[in-house]
Amino acid sequence: MLLIKNGKVLTMGPQGVLEQADVLIGDDGKIIEVAANLEAPGAEVLDASGKIVMPGLVDAHSHIGGFDTDTGAQDLNELTKPQTPEIQAYDGINPLDRSFMESAKAGITTSAITPGSGNVICGLACAVKSAGTSLASRTLRNPIALKAAMGVNPKGVYGPRTAQPMSRLGVADLFRDYFLKVKDYQAKKVQGLSDPEKMPKFDQGMENGLLVLEKKIPLKVHCYQHDMMSLLQLADEFDFDVTLDHALGSSDFYDEIASSKHVRGVIYGPLGAPLFGGEGCKVDIDCLAELDRRGVCCAIMTDGPCFVPYMIITQAGEAVRTGLDELRALAMITINAAKIIGCDDRVGSLEAGKDGDVLIFDGMPAVDSDARNRCTIIDGKIVYQA
Description:
By secondary structure, the chain is of the alpha/beta class. It has eleven helices and 16 strands. The strands form two sheets. Strands 1, 2, 3, 4, 5, 14, 15 and 16 form an eight-stranded mixed beta sheet that branches. It has an eight-stranded mixed beta sheet with strand order 6-7-8-9-10-11-12-13. Helix 8 links the parallel strand 12 and strand 13. Helix 4 crosses helix 5 (about 205-215) and helix 4 (about 170-195) runs parallel beside helix 6. The two termini are about 20 Å apart. The model has no long low-confidence stretch (mean pLDDT about 95).
């Protein structure tokens, strides 16, 4: 067992902020209790007096383990055709990639790892812990979403080949083409229940699309500015849920985003990306305060390893600087992110029964510019200690 004593505990859950409390984690890696004055004979004790204790951070959009920062290899980008719904990020992840430990040091304990955004329909995403034994044991949920992309990324891949999509028109057409095929496949499967001869041949790409149409997982879409409106129109057309990933330019569309019944969440960032013409020319992290006020579940991403892991805290700090309450900002890298990726039953807050993923900071992250993570605990095991 592990007992963390006397910290200021930001539970990010129903207990709120406990000014001085303890966190007890069992041998199974699950939280037993969060309360003051806990005793656990025989447990390893960490003294967190004067420090901040909080849940491990959840990065709701990442590519770590699949984009090699040393060689440039992109095992999460299958750029051979614009629709690759049949593939899954899980198959391209190197669990020994150094990006995982770098993330753990920064406080990120769970990452939503997605295929890259070079295709219109990219493949399945999964949620993975930053440390542990096998990749299978570190995987919280697979799949968490079907990844897709609009705008400059697929246009930039296929346009130079004089292939579709080279325009936003072509991107929207490929979205419709795919989901019309999925609807047809769905109808044939229903017919096949009463007439086996009409049952379609198994198609993994169609099956993955069915998960979206049946609202078992959302469509996780790389999109900026006006492309978000095209996406919401498609979501209305086919009645599926979406997450708006990157979402730069959201401040132009508060009403549309907040009123949409299809938006499961906005995953904003990363700051520091170069601006480019068209849909990528607006940076408005101040939109998070307004979207949060309007009831939209928001998270902040790193897009790792494209951007360094500690940027997740820096971006939360920028959101605070531009008007967001500090605890609401921290929610966007803990419980909100966990909800959006469908893993809040295990991570995102410190509650009895949840995974023992805990951080100990020497100051208030996103507020104190010199606050540093001193200890990262994943499943009750210390994986990093400064």
